[in-house]
Amino acid sequence: MRIGILGSGQVGQALARGYARHGHEVRIGTRQAEVGGLPTGPPAEVAAAAELVVLAVRGSAAEALAGSLAGELDGTVLVDATNPLDASTGSPQLFVGHTDSLGERVQRAAPGARVVKAYNTVGNALMVDPQLPGGPPSMFIGGDDQAAKDTVTGLLRDTGWDVVDLGGIEASRWLEPMCLAWVAVGARTGTWGHAFRLLRPEG
Ligand SMILES: NC(=O)c1ccc[n+]([C@@H]2O[C@H](COP(=O)([O-])OP(=O)(O)OC[C@H]3O[C@@H](n4cnc5c(N)ncnc54)[C@H](OP(=O)(O)O)[C@@H]3O)[C@@H](O)[C@H]2O)c1
């Protein structure tokens, strides 16, 4: 698949390298001139050319970037990996929650994009091909477009994930706080290789 990734931080680079390992054609849309030898381009050009785009920028920039690229993202599957983190007070807080979410703001900013929330409840090191003793961890997703969720589910299963669909994009209201639970485990244990798994009666 031709995949564009918006953002060249830890998430953007981890996904770019991981997807490339799986044979996808990947380009990072970034303002940077160079990103660790990875293929890059201007965000608008990368978004327009991709079959699937991952939004992996700082939470505070996500809504505005999605809005500025709304035309390029029209009809495109947009995987929203962002979290609405505000670290200005020391310990991280969410700048939106309960009755709205960053996932919903991104969807409203780019109404033609087929937004699927994913990847926001796990650290970047595990995002592609997670290896854990308990087996594949669960990636929780949400979005309003079933075909887009089917595409993302396929990509996630191919890259080592069990997938749990929580419904529409408003599931971001529950998924974004889960990132703080993931961070709390790391802060208390000093290790960052953990991931959530949903245990079901049917196994
Ligand atoms: N780090 C993790 O393990 C992890 C896990 C789950 C979810 N997340 C979420 O994933 C997102 C990316 O996280 P990260 O750790 O890779 O990087 P980050 O440090 O949160 O963000 C870096 C990226 O944000 C972009 N950015 C910052 N300000 C911008 C602006 N004004 N306009 C456009 N782009 C802007 C930069 O784009 P350029 O490339 O153009 O410089 C850069 O690539 C965040 O929302 C984070 O909460 C992170």
List the keywords.
binds NADP nicotinamide-adenine-dinucleotide phosphate, NAD(P)-bd_dom_sf, P5C_Rdtase_cat_N, Rossmann fold, 203 residues, eight-stranded mixed beta sheet, STEAP_metalloreductase, alpha/beta, Pyrroline-5-carboxylate reductase catalytic N-terminal domain-containing protein, 6 helices, 10 strands
| Poorly predicted runs | none
What is the helix tally? 6
Radius of gyration: 16 Å
Shape: globular
Order of strands, widest sheet: 3-2-1-4-5-8-9-10
Helical fraction equals 25-40%
CATH homologous superfamily identity = NAD(P)-binding Rossmann-like Domain
Q: What is the multimeric organization of the chains shown?
A: single chain
Overall pLDDT? 98
Question: Which small molecules are bound?
Answer: NADP nicotinamide-adenine-dinucleotide phosphate
* SSE sequence, one letter per element: EHEEHEHEEEHEEHEH
- CATH architectural grouping: 3-Layer(aba) Sandwich
Task: Describe the 3D structure.
The protein is α/β, with parallel strands linked by helices and 203 residues long. It has one domain (2-189): NAD(P)-binding Rossmann-like Domain (Rossmann fold), CATH 3.40.50. The protein is built from 6 helices and 10 strands; from the N terminus they run βαββαβαβββαββαβα. It has an 8-stranded mixed sheet with strand order 3-2-1-4-5-8-9-10, with helices on both faces. A two-stranded antiparallel ribbon has the order 6-7. The mean pLDDT is 98.
